[in-house]
Amino acid sequence: MERAESQDENVGKGPWLRFRRNKSLLVALVIQGLGLLFCLTYVCLHYYTLQAQHTYPPFESIRVQFTRCENGKCFLEIVQNVPETMTVQNNSIVINCDGYYLISLKGTFFLDVDVNLLYRKDWKPLLPLTKVRSMDAVTVAYLAYKDKIYLNVTSHTSGDPSSNNITVNEGELILIHQNPPGAYCFPKDGPRESDGNS
To answer: Who contacts 133 (Cβ-Cβ below 8 Å, separation ≥6)?
Structure first.
């Protein structure tokens, strides 16, 4: 009889033990499912980022030197062995992309001069410097396609014949541009139109 009673006691506890065991299995299954979902999401996102090519906006820059100026116009020379993405035409730096440019201008003169960094005909200069012997200036300016950057240097000694030929020591002009997404940038291989802006 004792045996029958113990079986009856186990029968009453049986569903409760099964429920606790099933509950534990259900919780473990949910945790495993969430882990699998997170792993699958990670793998898909990683695969997607590998498939999408990283495209950065075009980066334009140039570094030119100038050692002499004649009749107000400086002669710009591209620094050798430095890869440039912009060009010099007729002693002017040609702007191909709209946007903000960081402009650095350095140099030392042997007499007092006025220096104007120009970008459009009949517009105010970007960097107007008056009666200077040395310059180390930095500015940011918005430039557009077809603008041309050029230097105009004039001397204060008008009677001196050498005032038309001005020597510059360590003259350097640097332009750096990071093209924001959506800004206009002229194709590099396309034909250029002449516009008489120099």
So the answer is: 108, 109, 110, 111, 112, 113
Is the C-alpha dihedral spanning 155, 109, 128, 179 positive or negative? Answer: positive
Span 63-78, mean pLDDT? 86
pLDDT tens digits, one per residue of 111-126 = 888 888 888 888 888 8
Pairing of strands 73-78, 87-89: unpaired
CA distance 194 to 146: 9
Closest CA to 161 of 81, 86, 70: 70
Q: What does the alpha-carbon distance between residue 194 and residue 198 come to, in Å, rounded to a whole number?
A: 10
Residue 163 buriedness (CB in 10 A; 0-12 / 13-18 / 19+): middle
- Number of helical H runs and strand E runs in the chain: 1, 8
**0.70 exceeded by the pTM?**
no
Which amino acid type is present at position 19? F
Instruction: Phi first, then psi: give them for residue 197, nearest 5 degrees.
Output: -85, -5
**Residue reference for tokens 């002693």:** 91
Question: Considering the chain, what is the average pLDDT of its residues?
Answer: 77
Residue 22, pLDDT > 80, answer no
- Beta carbons of 84 and 63 less than 8 angstroms apart: yes
Beta strands 99-118; 148-155: pairing state: antiparallel
